[in-house]
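call fold target=Alpha,alpha-phosphotrehalase
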Amino acid sequence: MLEKDWWKSATVYQIYPKSFCDSNDDGIGDMKGIINKLDYLKNLGVDVIWTTPMYVSPMMDNGYDIADYYNIDPIFGTMEDFHKLLDEIHKKDMKLIMDMVINHTSTEHFWFKEALKGPENRYHNYYIWKDGTPDQAPNNWASKFGGNAWQYVESLGKYYLHLFDVTQADLNWENSELRNDIYKMINFWLEKGVDGFRLDVINLISKNQNFPNDTYETAISDGRKFYTDGPKVHKFLKELTANTFGKYPGSLTVGEMSSTTIPHCIKYTNPNNKELSMVFNFHHLKVDYPNGEKWALGDMDFKSLKNIFFKWQVEMEIGNGWSAVFWCNHDQPRIVSRFGNEKYLKESGKMLGTAIHFLRGTPYIYQGEEIGMTNPHFETIDEYKDVESLNNYKLLLEKGKSIEEAIAILNQKSRDNSRTPIQWDKNKNAGFTSGTPWINVAKNYSTLNVENSLKDEDSVFYHYKKLIELRKDYKVISHGDFIPMYEENTQVFGYIRKFENEKLLVLNNFYEDEIEIEIPKEFIGKKILIKNYKDTLLESHILKLRAYESLAIYLK
Ligand code: NOJ
C-alpha cells in the first residue's frame, strides 16, 4: 500500500521528449528513445517521470498547444508506444505523470474550429469571446508571449482571449459542459494507469468576468491580477479533483502556478482542501529580472533569493502546504550558467543540487541538470526556435536594442537554453540523433556528457544520485521542519531541518569567494551526509567555505 504522501520521499525527473533521445533519426526525440534510456534513470534513482505534452499538436509551443487530447502526436510515436512506455516505467517500479494543458487548447483543436462557426455552435462557449472592432481590443491584457492577449476574428466580429500564443485559445471554465469534457478526457488517461499529472498554468483558469483593464504602472500590471488565482479557481480545482484523480488514491498532481501567492498555494495543497498534491511557484526564478522585467540582462539578487525561499518554506509549512522544489525546467535557463558558475561546473552544480534537494518539498530534476548541463550560448537568431524568444527578439529590436544586445538577452533568458538535446556521449550530435537535431546541441558535449559523467565518480551525476538516496534514508530530509539560518549573510544559503531528535544543517556558498561562518557547536564532529569538496573537515565551530562549497551535517 502506498503511503498517502509517498511523494515526500520521492524525486521527480522531467523529460522534454523532443530533446531527450531520438530513436528514428528524424532529429526529434520520441517515446522509444525514452524507453531506451529508462535504465539510466533507474540508475540515477528517480521515482517519478514527468513527460511534457506528447498529444497531437501543431507544435507552435512544442506541445503546449494541444489539438487532440486523446491521441499521441506521431513525432513522438504511437499509442502503442505510449502503453509500452508506461508499462516499462511501471516494471521498473517508477511512475509516470503526464503534462495536462487545460487552460487553453490549440486553435487547431476540433472545439475551436467548431467555435469559429458562431454563437449557435455547441463549442462556441468553450472559449472566451468578446465583442469588439478590429482596432479596439476588449481590454489591455498582455499575452505572456508578447503583444495584446486578444485576437480578432473578422467573420464573427469578436475577439478570443489567448494568454499565450495567438494559436493557444483560453478555455472558458465558466462553462460546465467544457469542464465535463475535460474530466472525461483526464479519466481516459487515468484509466490507462498514468500516475498523475502536471497541470499547466492551472491557476489561470478562472478569469475575472468583468475583464477590467490594468494600469501598466509596473512590469506586472499587465492584466495578470484579473486572472491569476482567480475568483473561482479553488472551486474549479476541487470539482476537477473530485471528478478525476481524486478517485485514484495515491495519484500525484502538481500544479504550475504562475505569479501566485503563498496563501493560495496553501489552499491548493493543504490535504484538507482536496485540491492538489503540490505546486510549483516561480518567484525564486525572477531574482534576475530587473524590476520584474524578464527580457533584460540581470544579475542574481542573492538577498531576494534567500528571502523568497525562507518565506515560502516557513509559511508553506505553517499552512501545511507542500511545494515542488526545483531550479530547472523547459522554460528556465540552465542553473549552472545562471546562479552557478561554468568555471566551477562541478562545485556549483553540486552545491545547487544540495541547496534545493534538502528543502522542505519534493525535488524535481530537469533532464541534463544531473550532469550539470549549461546554456548553449547560441550566437545567431537562427539557432533559436522558441516562439516566446522569437517574439521577444522582435520586440527588443523594435524597442531599439541592437542585434548583439538582443542576442545577449536571449543568451541569458531564452527558454531554448534548456531545450538543447541531452548530451549522451561524445559522438555526433551528442548521441541524441544521427539525423539533424531540431535544435542545435550545445558545443561542450564532447566533454560534458552522460557517458563521461558515469565514468567519473566525482561527477555531478553521482552527487545527484546520492541526494536522491539520502531523501529515502532520512526522514529529516523528507519530513523535517525548516529553520532558516544565516539570514543576514550575503553569500551563504543555510538552513536547518529538524525531525523528532534528528537535525540536518545545510550550508551552501553561492559565490566564488571564500567565506568563514560559525556553525552551531552541536554540529562539530558530526556526520557529513554529503559534500562537494573531498577534504572538508568539521573540527571547529568556525568553518571556511571555499568557492561554491556545500555540505550537509547530520546529528541525532
Ligand atoms: C507553461 C509551460 O511550461 C510553457 O512551456 C508553456 O509555453 C506555457 N505554460 C503555455 O502552455
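return ok
Residues 302-318 form the longest helix (17 residues). The chain has 15 helices and 22 strands.
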